[in-house]
Amino acid sequence: MTATPTDGASHPTLDEDPTLPPEGVSQKSTAGWIGVLLILVLLSEEVAYAFNLVTPALPNMAATFQTPYIAWVSTLFTLTGAISAPLVGKLADRDGKKKWLLITTGCMAVGSLIVALAPTFPLVLVGRAVEGFGLAIVPIVYSLMRDIFPKRMLAVAVSLATAGIGVTTITGPIFAGLLIDNFGYRGVFFALAVFPVLIGALVLLVVPESPVRVRTQIDWTGGLLLGLTVAILLFGIGEGGTWGWTSWKTLLCAALAIATFAIWIQQAKRSANPLIDLSVLRGRPVVTTLITQFTGQAVIALQFVLLSFIVQTPISLGLTYGLGEDASFMARITTPAGFASVLMGFLVGYLAERRGARLPNWIGFCLMAVGSLALALSHTEFTPILLGYLVYAFGGGLISAAIPNLVIAATPVRLQAVTASTVNVVGSLGSAIAVQIGFAILALNVATVVNGSPIYGGSGFTAVYILAAALAVIGLVATLLMPHGRKSQSSEALT
């Protein structure tokens, strides 16, 4: 499997000028590259908006459709992404990263429109599944950056393309509140349908295509097996709270997931062109990066989902949590947290080029753990909630920006897009599994039911926040075990 530019030019070596982009890519001024960066950052924001605009809408959607299965709106989105992202990564390596950015951007627009127009809850889930193909956008974006950007700009560009997601933490709840309070959840999804169309047009016109191609065949069987494994696992977790964690149905799902995963591993070992290169995944750099991505995204998902319910649960119910506010009120908490996250993105770009990306990553997990524990101890009043969430957000911003840099430092260029997609899949699994486990814990502490939707007890929120803190500690340990991310990002990216 060899990586070759489309025009026959060689990929940059250590002897080439690191201030220039690879051969085969159009030469641009610094202002031109900043313009490309801005477009790619905005495109990455679409993925974040698909979380940050939708999560505040979950209580409204649950009430509209009178369903206790609202967690599947988030889970099915990440499930589809987990199934499709490795295949999309392979296709992007083979056919061109810009091409597949445009395809996945189209999926986001179409899926959002389906949800916005859906008359029934099952059709909502279909739309979210189509949207899930867009989860591959972020790893393809920073893989494309590695191929086209001057090395002097790479660390900052990749950090901003992912930590720029912090901008959605600032603007997402504001937009979500305005849309939900005035148009209901459908307004959110109409906005999510329009945004990728506009940014996709800019990508088509301005962003250059990568000159790098990987000659490989697509492992469709491996994709099917891995996707089936993830689907069974998430279904079992989602229904475990209803069936009982020791029931035969739950245990059967666990056994089937393990068996299917084992079959996938054997198939990958025999395949000449496996979906995921297991030899790369066995190395400590990638394994530790996968663990940090899983735990980091799990904590981020739990924090935002919990906050949405805490803010919008009525005080009149007499629970030990609930601010009784509308969706717009979330911005009072998430806006300062978003500024903190964006600030950390700039800081990671600076630190990664001088000290490596490992340092901000372990600091981020420490802050995540502290913020989660603070919220576990106190989530009944506005000020403690704001402070705990702010501490967590500083950590989340550091981790979101550091992990893509760690992926680049840990991965050979010929496997960059597919490995980045795999890391993104693991992050999606972290989000999906954490949300399902979180709701399963909450379901054990239902205080009452209003209009067909369960209202959870305060002890459930305490337990889920403790889970978030424990996940952050696991991420911290994995970061400390990393053998990479200790040198400047530009030197590790060229290795």
Multimeric state: single chain
Please describe the biggest sheet, giving its number of strands, its sense, and whether it closes into a barrel: 2 strands, antiparallel
Share in β-strands? under 5%
Instruction: Identify the strand order in the major beta sheet.
Output: 1-2
Q: Count of DSSP helices?
A: 19
Structural class: mainly alpha
User: What is the N-to-C succession of helices and strands?
Assistant: EHHHHHHHHHEHHHHHHHHEEHH
Low-confidence runs: 1-20
Shape: globular
Descriptive overview:
There is one protein chain. With 495 residues, the chain is mainly α. Helices cover 73% and strands 3% of the residues. The chain contains 19 helices and four strands. The strands form two sheets. It has a two-stranded antiparallel sheet with strand order 1-2. A two-stranded antiparallel ribbon has the order 3-4. α8 packs antiparallel against α14 and α15 packs antiparallel against α16.
Can you lay out the helices and strands and say which pair or pack?
Elements: E1 3-5, H1 30-52, H2 58-65, H3 71-95, H4 97-117, H5 121-131, H6 137-148, H7 151-163, H8 166-183, H9 185-206, E2 212-214, H10 220-243, H11 248-270, H12 278-281, H13 284-312, H14 331-354, H15 358-377, H16 382-410, H17 416-443, E3 446-450, E4 453-456, H18 458-480, H19 489-493
Antiparallel strand pairs: 1-2, 3-4
